[in-house]
Amino acid sequence: MAASSLEPVLARLGDVPLRDAGELRARLVPELRTLLDEARASAEARLLEKGDGLACARFLSDRMDEIVRLVHDAVVRHLYPADNPSMAERLAVVATGGYGRGTLAPGSDVDLLFLLPYKTTAWSESVVEAMLYVLWDLKLKVGHATRSVEECLREAGADMTVRTSLLEARFMFGDRGLFDDLVSRFDREIVAASAAEFVDAKLKERDARVAKAGASRYLVEPNVKDGKGGLRDLNTLFWIAKYVYRVREPEELVKAGLFTPEEFKLFARCEEFLWRVRCHLHFATGRAEERLTFDLQRTIAERIGFAGRGGLSAVERFMKAYFRIAKDVGDLTAIVCAELEARQAKKRPVLDRMFGRFRRRRGGALENDAFVIDNNRINLRSEDAFERDPANLIRLFWLADRHNLPIHPDATRLATRSLSRIGPTLRNDPEANRLFLDILTSRNAPEVVLRLMNEAGVLGRFIPDFGRIVAMMQFNMYHHYTVDEHLIRSIGVLTEIESGKGAADHPLATQIVGTIHNRRALYVAVFLHDIAKGRPEDHSTAGAAIARKLGPRFGLTESETDTVAWLVEHHLLASNTAQSRDLSDPATIRSFAETVQTMERLKLLHILTIADIKAVGPGVWNGWKGQLLRNLYHETEVMLGGGAVDIARSERIRLAQERLREALPDWTEEEFESYAARHAPAYWLKTDEARRVKQARFVRAADREGRTVSTAYETDRFRGVTEFTVLSPDHPRLLAIVTGACAAAGGNIVDAQIFTTTDGMALDTIVLSRAFDRDEDELRRAERVATAIERALKGEVRIADLVAGKRPPKERARTFQVAPEVSIDNSLSSRQTVIEVSGLDRPGLLYDLTTALGKLNLNIASAHIVTFGEKAVDVFYVTDLTGTKVTHAGRQASIRRALLEVFKAEEAEQAQRRSA
């Protein structure tokens, strides 16, 4: 859309003034809408063809300039001509904000400043109003202000947002003298005396914005605009540079001395990539979408042109590229902060805040003369420190940990520029590896130092296998962070346990961590447990091979290396066993103990498992998982010690009953003994003390009120779930009815504990994912779910009809693919057949599976429901109606076919809905 294409639009309006603004809009808007649609279509085509996001944003900005200019000319020519304008009838139209930078995303706001000489006149007010109505009729999101030069300066002095907006002001058309007056006075009266204040305010604003969007730049659903490492961070750097050094174009950052030419190339590459992603997001969704959600990641990866390679899918390769860019943006931020501080343009506390976990100290000698303490931070004595001794690249971080001091950004910057010095010689240097092992196993803050090493690029270069998983995401809803960030956070959890800070959540781990003999092996295993993610082979097996290679290099003994390799290979064993197996079945414990073999391994695996689960993301760990892991530990401890499992189990049952009795002082002995006798041993072994107390009172209340069907519920904000307790007469289809009622009421089951009392009652705990942030809203929903469960159990509603009306979101079916699997095993239990079903989770899945099992005439003795994001793993302990295992091959094949059909039917229905 060139100027020549706009003139005919004005010509078609004629030269005669129109009757009113309504007539102008009626004739002008349709033509402008066509031009705008054509411009956006052209921009999208260029983006898809050439892949230049910044060029797309600039093209859209240029086209918007032409639209705004055309609207102004039409208004002035046909509605409010000013043939002999007075000094008051002057107007400058100025672009501000992102539009002021000359870039515009498809769904971005159009920010305009209508600049006046000193006050609004009837003419200027009419022109501005008429222009805005046309722009609004075009469905544009217009942010606007009408101010005089004096008003702009007054507002900028009081409001940092206005000040930032004016910083990026760009003259479009009108009275140039007004704009030039504003710029010169803004520089002289506002900017000149407030550089430090502006820098401090912008960095604090960035901290608040990042905290709101998600503090880690490695969150797997990042915000491209406002998240850490996103476009707004680059904007902030440029705002600071413009304010402090009054540069006008990004290229001037090199001349100002903030960046080297190579660093500016990195800045430009980051900016283009982030704009490319943002423009694709807006085009793909048809709105100003800034968050790369799972359902959009695959779409954007395809639009940009990523393909699967080397064990990674297209979307995982795209997101790895995204996170590398986010890391580069973080590096650039650190560079600018260091340069500003060196020039004293930034207040010191801002930088110190970045290293808040370090303790401050002043003075003190360092063990190596290549380093000095510079303003309470470790810095290099000379720029050739890494050249003279490449081991200093590791020693820099070792000293930071040893002396609890932050690293000067200049030193970090030089380390990043010296990565080429980390090669085979340094990787095999015993001293460098000793220093690294000291960092990894430090009792100070290894998580902090490892993250600094990773962000500087040193960690991935020193350990190439770690470098392969830097910025790697796993395309699922379970993992919240990239693989490298997950491993570093795992070390943080381990340090927390060892320091005793996690005693409330992990009493057993805190108790046993001081008794282990292989502390170094534990830290290395935690650091390496997911090192082989993203490879075609099983990551646990491949990771064990990597551990055997790296152990001797790090200086571990042969025995330590064997322990690390074993832990990496089996790091999922305890979690999978605890969550998806019946721990009251001796066969489960026997099988687990045969693999673990020693008490030392049991302790190490227990602690590693906690560190792994907790580092997955917020809300993934909960008390329920902790109790299951502790139960597994105690059961295995008895077997490994050569004791009788049944005796140990009976002792723990006795202790559990004693503690419950103490918690119920208002119960009579006869009342308590009668209640305790109703529960099978599995109940006392599997449930935690708090739940036993709540359920005892719940059952007694139901008995006293004569209710054979009863429900109770409570929310847990920290875990993000709502728990339901269900009491009902037991029967074969009970679980199907309960799960169906939950699905029909919009509840997604994420876990369950199922027990049958000796008098034929079922006492089940069903855990649903939370739907509302506010407790009052969630409790209202819980009441609806509880009512649905009770009505279903009483036979007042037909569950099948209700569940049939529920459908999973179409987007979810498109976003994730999980191949369904069914395994049937008779060796895992001494009494039942174990059926494990995994596949894409959805509302109603558990109901469909339990219904299918019911139709196959199978009794469900226990069920273990586990979800890993979008993947459901449901394990059922079943028997035939005769109470025996399912051993016939033909019968097993029928079960497998029936359960797989549950997924196939849903897939077919989803495909039919998508085609419709």
TrEMBL record:
What is a single molecular function from GO for this protein? phosphoric diester hydrolase activity
> Per UniProt, what is one Pfam family of this protein?
ACT
* Keyword Cell division on entry: no
UniProt xrefs under Gene3D superfamilies: 3.30.70.260, Beta Polymerase, domain 2, cca-adding enzyme, domain 2
**EC number in record:** 2.7.7.59, 3.1.4.-
Residues of the HD domain: 483-599
Q: Which cofactor does it need?
A: Mg(2+)
Which key words are in the record?
Hydrolase, Magnesium, Multifunctional enzyme, Nucleotidyltransferase, Repeat, Transferase
UniProt key word Nucleotidyltransferase: yes
Please name the GO terms of the biological process aspect recorded for this protein, alphabetically: regulation of nitrogen utilization
- The source's domain of life comes to Bacteria
Catalyses: [protein-PII]-L-tyrosine + UTP = [protein-PII]-uridylyl-L-tyrosine + diphosphate; [protein-PII]-uridylyl-L-tyrosine + H2O = [protein-PII]-L-tyrosine + UMP + H(+)
Give the ACT domain ranges.
723-805, 834-913
Q: Where is the stretch described as Uridylyltransferase? A: 1-365
Q: How is its activity regulated?
A: Uridylyltransferase (UTase) activity is inhibited by glutamine, while glutamine activates uridylyl-removing (UR) activity.
Q: State the signal peptide span.
A: none
What the entry lists under HAMAP family is as follows: PII_uridylyl_transf
Q: How are the domains described in the entry?
A: Has four distinct domains: an N-terminal nucleotidyltransferase (NT) domain responsible for UTase activity, a central HD domain that encodes UR activity, and two C-terminal ACT domains that seem to have a role in glutamine sensing.
**Family indicated by similarity:** Belongs to the GlnD family.
NCBIfam families attached here? PRK05092.1, UTase_glnD
| Stated role | Modifies, by uridylylation and deuridylylation, the PII regulatory proteins (GlnB and homologs), in response to the nitrogen status of the cell that GlnD senses through the glutamine level. Under low glutamine levels, catalyzes the conversion of the PII proteins and UTP to PII-UMP and PPi, while under higher glutamine levels, GlnD hydrolyzes PII-UMP to PII and UMP (deuridylylation). Thus, controls uridylylation state and activity of the PII proteins, and plays an important role in the regulation of nitrogen metabolism.
Specify the protein name: Bifunctional uridylyltransferase/uridylyl-removing enzyme
Organism of origin is Microvirga thermotolerans
Q: What is the lineage of its organism?
A: Bacteria, Pseudomonadati, Pseudomonadota, Alphaproteobacteria, Hyphomicrobiales
Q: What is the name of the gene encoding this protein?
A: glnD
